[in-house]
Amino acid sequence: MPDTRLGTPEIYADLQHRLLTGGFAPGAKLMPSALHTEYGCSANTVRDVLLQLSKIGLVEFEIQRGFRARNVSIQKRAEIARFRVLLEQEGAVASMCNGGLEWESALAAAHHRLMHIEKQFARTQDTIPFVGIWSDAELAFHRTLLSECRLPPLQETFDNVYMQFRQQMVGLESNCVPSYFHRIIQEHQAIVDAATAKDEAALRSAIQNHQARHTERDVSATR
Amino acid sequence: MPDTRLGTPEIYADLQHRLLTGGFAPGAKLMPSALHTEYGCSANTVRDVLLQLSKIGLVEFEIQRGFRARNVSIQKRAEIARFRVLLEQEGAVASMCNGGLEWESALAAAHHRLMHIEKQFARTQDTIPFVGIWSDAELAFHRTLLSECRLPPLQETFDNVYMQFRQQMVGLESNCVPSYFHRIIQEHQAIVDAATAKDEAALRSAIQNHQARHTERDVSATR
DNA sequence: ATTTTTCAGAATATCAAAATTTTGAGGGAG
DNA sequence: CTCCCTCAAAATTTTGATATTCTGAAAAAT
């Protein structure tokens, strides 16, 4: 798409964005030899970027077999969602214990910003360009939630899992219903309330409920 | 070291092994242009392998600044250890709930194999060649512990974290005292006992105790 | 004396082409 | 009809060379 000469970071960002917004069909082959013309660079450069993207789980890499956009399935989304809940519960509880007033304030600020975007969202029909900025704001909110947990490895893992989860979402549901966002606003509010009240059990429940739609175990699937 | 022509998987395995056994000083620069002669391949091939190793956290990669063996510190080891405990507790408890007799048996088998190696270990002075096989057996034991948790993302993350933890260990303590292994045998036994007894609280404690030496928070470090 | 600039050496990123491997279709043998 | 073998097209990996960027020390300026 872009016609100017791009550096590796730009190619990385663009490919990540496409992966996260349905720019590639799930499981689609990602061929450096095909993509390099789009970015006006060599195939090897695309290969490097794809290798880096496989690091965060958005791209599957198999030796001698190239790259693919990660496959999606209800089962896989459920596994990722349950792992995400696990990480977020532990991280949020730790943040709640460590974090002081400045953490609560940051959380309130992130939530306010997110609500503002979500309200704009509900008013607009043209949802496509909004998913990107909404997702950034939601990620910022959840990052703030974990920001004081003092476990960098958990935070890094959460970032990856969050993006993998998002990839599963857009791969499985191409359209976003507006009522969906109403529920999400309430769920975020419950998280903020529990964190502010320093109620560990409530915080865990709120985080669990936030993903309840996706964590149900699918007994029919044989994986 | 090897004089025959090596494929990428062999180079990957060898570099991983060196990273995990102190073959590189912590923070040491890993230059494709220097390593490619050792493996009889081009610098770019080494670069690819290092990119893949950075995926599991053993190698740090910064754009335009190359690769480094990951740095070690008491602080970093503590963070990794605490994250490891968290993952292992959740994974083991889930495995205990899901796993049946075949899981208990597999766990007992992995533990028996590990004990056998540990006893040989205590008898030998020449510890260096043993650390590799002991570590493989210990990893197998902990993998078995999580094998029935039905959370593939957690299992993958645990593998990475386990290796990062090992890297911190060998980077911080070059010598392994034999008494160290006596304690570890008992700690593993406690994990097996709790899992067999289906005692969730005891299992969590046993896993926590297994890393207790490393999870202490270092208040003096300002990170 | 401290800071800034310059400059060569070294290391990294990128490239286009060659070598290797995989894939899939077509043709024979059982 | 099925299975296996062969072979050519396509894709991936590797290579060696080129271009860009970084590093550190010496020189110049404040």
TrEMBL record, chains A, B:
Superkingdom of this protein's organism: Bacteria
Protein keywords: DNA-binding, Transcription, Transcription regulation
PROSITE patterns in UniProt: HTH_GNTR
Ranges where the HTH gntR-type domain occurs: 5-72
Organism the protein comes from: Jannaschia donghaensis
Key word Transcription regulation present: yes
Protein name: Carbon starvation induced regulator
Keyword DNA-binding: yes
Pfam families: FCD (PF07729), GntR (PF00392)
Transmembrane segments: none
SMART domains: FCD, HTH_GNTR
